[in-house]
Amino acid sequence: MGSARAHDLRTVLSGDDIARASRRIAHEIVEKAKGASDLVLLGIPTRGVTLAHRIGKAISEIEGVDVPVGALDITLYRDDLRLRPTRALEETSIPDVGIDGKIVVLVDDVLFSGRTIRAALDALNDVGRPAAVRLAVLVDRGHRELPIRPDYVGKNIPTSPTEKVRVRLSEIDDMDLVEISAGGEE
Amino acid sequence: MRHLLSAGDLDRDQALLILDTAAEMAALSDRSVKKLPTLRGRTVVNLFFEDSTRTRISFELAAKRLSADVINFAAKGSSVSKGESLKDTALTLEAMGADAVVIRHWDSGAPYRLAHADWIGGSVVNAGDGTHEHPTQALLDAYTMRRHLRDGKGALEGVRVAIVGDILHSRVARSNVLLLQTLGAEVTLVAPPTLLPIGMETWPCEVSYDIDSVLPKVDAVMMLRVQQERMQAAYFPTAREYSRLYGLNGDRMRLLPEHAIVLHPGPMNRGMEISAEVADSDRAVMVEQVANGVSVRMAVLYLLLGGAKELSE
Fold this sequence. Notes:
heterodimer, A: 5-stranded parallel β-sheet, 3-stranded antiparallel β-sheet, globular, B: alpha/beta, Rossmann fold
């Protein structure tokens, strides 16, 4: 249980680390896209959306232009829908400029099996045809099950498959923190 | 949730989950590709014993947008007209591997029988049974009211709704009263005494015989079709008298508060329960109800079929 196991929690990114990582990712995105004019950031709910807004804000500060930020729910495209009870949908909001011909940067908190990103690519396909799709994640914990790799990584954190990575962001959880807990609970 | 048989079976959280899911589904219909892979490989049977165009095509479109395979089984010209029982029809559909059966039947309770008789393993969705219930219609009405009156969010606390017309034969009215009560709205039924069912005292709503006194106090008015096909007896003297006393015309519409909307489940009898002026006014949301119907039915099919199969109730 949570309290008995509290000493198993290991902090891997502090609030300052998260802020620095998002700022660096913002710089890298702008550098690779040679500006911010064709960029669209799409976060994957829930915490990916929060991160996308933070990165979008950082890019605006760097480049002095507003970057469209949206949300892309991938629930209806998941490959494990039938393995679990029905999931509630999250919000999808595509910015008014659309994604056709744009450089879309998908933003998620943790990259693990890669199946979420596979679903996101399928979902994007139904929304439009971007010029390029890139992937930014705060944490890459390894254990990929599909040939997917991130373009921008906040931090690579080697984990065992049973460990749990928990990202907390102040907009949702009242604090910025990434911690790892030993697996085998539940 | 395995079946959707009655609007009364839904608790507040389930009803809101359906409405919120429908809102996300509606956003998808603005896209260039209006199709989702979610129900690929699942089979939905539209089992319609009674004529219905709009409900059937609405369910058909909803299932197709989620990539389910759809089979339309109309009773006319089928084995049913040759005397097949509901049970044998159900067993046939089960043998074909139907994951969901959307049933419209002239007998009240047929969907309940289909869901609980252990003939089929899939989900059952009531698309209207006799004079009993039509839960997806109530859901799309609630969705439409929520969009116009509550900014598309939350429940319908404090929303005042008048349902006017043939309450006696109306499955739409029954389902709406149950669902609107769950969502916190206040319902007033308006009809001549001959078109009100017996035992109304137990319904969670008010009853009035005077439409003109009700209209100024409501946020939404729902006009019901006068169902000629169900009227074997004389429920009112003449159609003109009914229209004069209970029809919604332009003058009556102007009694409504500024923000109030006019709903109708369709098909409308223009000149009978609703005048052309009202039907074509910008307060009438009938066309939007049709579009919302597809979103709501997508939500229901997704929530029933999208996850792992529930093995037991």
